[in-house]
Design goal:
- By secondary structure, the chain is an all-alpha fold.
- It has seven helices and two strands.
- It has a two-stranded antiparallel ribbon with strand order 1-2.
- Strand 1 and strand 2 form a beta hairpin.
- Helix 2 runs antiparallel to helix 3 and helix 3 packs antiparallel against helix 7.
- The longest helix has 34 residues.
């Protein structure tokens, strides 16, 4: 998962937002009202579907937070969203999608990979814009619609297939592998690799090294 520095505002911790197990931290009760967290709570904490539902809930929250933020705060929220989406979708393509191909079919896996490739391109375009510009808001609105539609497809088509086609132990193994992949995944969009599990395995580790060095320098420069 992204190595994000805790940011405080009015003494409220904004992130990090996951425990070491990839589960939403209990110290953020205001984040616990999404029905996806209710579904996740009924599963083993390392079940891959539970982890992904938790992360989907956080992605929805961040979109909401951006719409009400301005200035530096808006940039901070976007950076958190960008980092979470980058590692989340990379890990899905590396760990989840091959299994989904087996249990849900080539068409389902291919459609989700194609959506993630387009989302990665859009995220790369957004990252180049001034977050306080009108153009950013226009592109973000379309990006949000596409990302949430993609998540809905996963939750109603891909995840049920994983639950019916994989044993609980297989899903727990996938969950642990997903979290490991997220810790090693790129934290910025890389359209060249996006949408292809094979390319993610080949280029992802190198892109991650560059991204995390970039993030470290950026954090140091702000101090």
């Amino acid at each position: 998962m992204p190595d994000l520095t805790a940011v405080t505002r009015s003494k409220k911790v904004i992130c990090p937002y996951f425990t070491k197990d990839g589960v939403m931290s209990a110290q953020y009760p205001e984040m616990d009202d999404d029905p996806r967290r209710d579904k996740a709570a009924g599963k083993e904490k390392d079940d891959v579907v539970a982890i992904l539902l938790q992360q989907h809930a956080r992605i929805r929250e961040l979109f909401g937070e951006i719409s009400g933020a301005e200035g530096d705060r808006k940039k901070e929220v976007f950076n958190e969203l960008r980092g979470l989406l980058a590692v989340h979708e990379t890990a899905e393509e590396m760990i989840v999608r091959p299994a989904a191909k087996d249990v849900a079919g080539d068409e389902e896996a291919g459609a989700r990979n194609a959506e993630e490739k387009e989302a990665n391109k859009a995220l790369a375009r957004l990252e180049k814009l001034d977050v306080n510009s009108p153009e950013f808001d226009v592109q973000l609105a379309q990006f949000q619609q596409d990302v949430l539609s993609h998540a809905q497809h996963e939750e109603t088509e891909e995840f049920p297939a994983l639950e019916s086609g994989c044993t609980p132990e297989q899903r727990r193994t996938m969950g642990r592998r997903l979290l490991t992949a997220e810790k090693l995944a790129p934290t910025h969009p890389h359209p060249t690799a996006a949408g292809s599990p094979a390319m993610q395995w080949t280029l992802g580790p190198f892109a991650s090294l560059l991204d995390r060095a970039r993030d470290a320098f950026s954090t140091s420069a702000k101090r």
